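Why do we bother with a discrete structure alphabet at all? Because it lets us treat a fold like text: something you can write down, compare, and reason about line by line. To make this less abstract, here is a complete entry for DUF302 domain-containing protein. Read it the way you would read a sentence in a foreign language you are learning: slowly, and without expecting to understand everything at once.
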Amino acid sequence: MKPLVFAILSAIVALPAGAEVTRVAAQGSVPEVMDRLEAAVGGAGATVFARVDHGAGAASVEMELGASELLIFGNPALGTPAMQADPLAGLYLPLKVLAYEDSEGGVWLAYEEPADMFEGLGVPADAEVLAKMSGALGKLTAAAAGG
């Protein structure tokens, strides 16, 4: 239960108003896309901390929600430099990617751009770590999107 609570709280606090969200069209069902994402994350040497099934959570309280899963993952080699620049970066780490089905049946991957996550913190806008995180998120979601 603690990992689920942590995952939900992380998702809530990690998306400031006006943050840029990148969306990537994906092929297959939400679970299939999330399986591919999880495999890509593991293959890249990162650690998966939690996989949250929002749809199952809604069903557990007798509410409906379309297919939606959140993967929380990280790599200390990427996250530590951001936290060294500003410990508050830990509020936005580990990284998160959402896979969801829209109202028309399309499946999407979505994530917040690292530069937006750390905006207003002591992480320089031109920090190498931001480019590395952005590149990793792009590669991982491309691999998961299939097609």
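What the structure line is telling us, in plain words: The mean pLDDT is 89. The longest strand covers residues 47-53.
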